[in-house]
Amino acid sequence: MxxxxxxxxxDKELITIKGxxxxxxxxxxxxxxxxxxxxxxxxxxxxxxxxxxASMTLEEVIEIIVENEKNGHMTARLHTGDPAIxxxxxxxxxxxxxxxxxxxxxxxxxxxxxxxxxxxxxxxLPGVSQTVILTRLEGRTPVPEKEKMTELAKIQASMAIFLxxxxxxxxxxxxxxxxxxxxxxxAIVYKATWPDEKIVITTVEELxxxxxxxxxxxxxxxxxGNFLGGEYERSMLYHPEFTHGYRQGxxxxxxx
Length: 256
Ligand code: SAH
Fold this sequence. Notes:
The chain is α/β, with parallel strands linked by helices. The chain contains seven helices and ten strands. The mean pLDDT is about 95.
């Protein structure tokens, strides 16, 4: 059996209870050493074999999983955040399935949730935005034409941008070209929920300078949108005049 486990964004207590249990039972943990907090490996049993996948190819990872299966050993494949987001798990799952190896995915707290928690912000503010876009700037991995940053920027939703903190001049340019006003609030959140977490608040226009000054170029998310600003409308859900399935409001109000 192989488990693809979400490690959470960094803080070792932000893994799920299920994920922690699997780490404690696993005979072998293959972890993404570049981003997974090594403190999570403290949950492993004493004789667990630990393998850092940072320098491995997909084929080498699979080889270890297959070998473990042969020996009746359980593998935990530990991915940062939630494995469904830029986790490259699909290519592993497809091979594992083809080889008839049983697998299960245990979700994790993604870094975009960790970053919002670290800042105490909400992506979905009434009157501001009801949509969150999780995306990245094109790097060596191509981004489909219709999802280019200039296209997504037209929507002016709340954005969490992964894998792009090393390309801030290009990012800032494309966000503005796409339609975000230059003064739109932006944040660089480095290592959200880790002990050395750093948060830099800036604007879309000043992202490149802010990145340079704070010397952040990796392991950071870029958040963009007016949800980082001060203006919004209060939520209907907790409004005294609003009726919903669990509470009778004091006016005709709608349901949601
Ligand atoms: N599966 C992960 C994302 C992996 S891609 C998740 O759900 O979070 C790697 C990118 O995620 C990094 O380049 C960075 O943009 C972001 N990232 C991962 N952990 C982070 C953290 N603790 N703080 C800020 N950004 C993080």
